[in-house]
Amino acid sequence: MGHSRRSSGAHVLAASAVAGAVLLAWYSFQLSEVHDTAPRQSPKFDGDKDTLAPGARFTPKELAYTDDILDSDLLRPAPLFALEAAAQGLQYQFMSRGFNHQSALVISLHNPNHESSITVDLPAGMLLAPAKNRDFQNLVLRDAVHLSLLPGESKRVEQWAFCGNQYHTPPMSEEMKPTGWTLDAPPCQNCIWKATLPYETAVTATEGNWMAAKYASALAV
Tens digit of pLDDT for each residue in 29-74? Predict the structure, then answer.
């Protein structure tokens, strides 16, 4: 009787050990699958400035729009400002100060050249995206900018800019990056929001309002 109980206990322990070994092997296999798959996945835009190659044109996802915006006439390819600036040696920075007012975009420019001048041309509708945090709104330059910098000269200009993502957080003091696109919409804030709404994605804080606007827009059609 005692021997039978000991044998049963030994069988249970052996079975448990086998089951544990099988489970461990399966878990190790899953980890190796994840490890092998992860490098092949496309990198997500998390605000890191090095996510994109310098001067690369932003994708719809990086602009917080859906891919079908490319089937519309809303986004128009623009000159790659970062590449043009690098070719001339231009140093620049775009900073946000909210949206839909005359100082919403602050542009700082410096010509480090000692002998040659630099001409800067920014098209109306130029689309800029937050450099670090995708929860913030894009900005859309209302008016074209054309200016020249003498050798060694620095300039700081303030420009009117509209919000390009209604259901994101206003960028009060964020560095912005040129995206390689212009937004072809009438130059008024409500006009741009109406144009971008079908393609917008929302951040968590605004998802409820975004969905309500989508339903209202669908019902109005």
Answer: 333 333 333 322 222 333 333 344 456 899 999 999 999 999 999 9
3 state SS of 71: helix
Q: Do 110 and 199 meet the contact criterion of CB atoms below 8 Å apart?
A: no
Higher pLDDT, 165 or 26: 165
For residue 200, the 8-state DSSP code is: B
- Return the exposure string of 97-113: e unless at least 16 CB atoms fall within 10 Å of the residue's CB, then b: bbbbeeebbbbebbbeb
> What size, in residues, is the chain?
221
pLDDT the model gives residue 207: 65
Strand partners, 91: 110
Task: Tell me the two tokens of residue 127.
Answer: 């689309």
Query: Which residues does 101 contact at the CB level (< 8 Å), separation at least 6?
Result: 160
> CA–CA separation, 130 vs 117, rounded Å?
29
User: What percentage of the chain's residues is helix, strand, coil (to nearest 5)?
Assistant: 40, 25, 35
Distance, in Å, from the CA atom of 152 to the CA atom of 111, rounded to the nearest integer, reads 5
Write down the pLDDT at residue 39: 28
The answer to whether 203 and 169 have CB atoms below 8 angstroms apart is yes
Instruction: State how beta strands 154-163 and 75-77 pair.
Output: unpaired
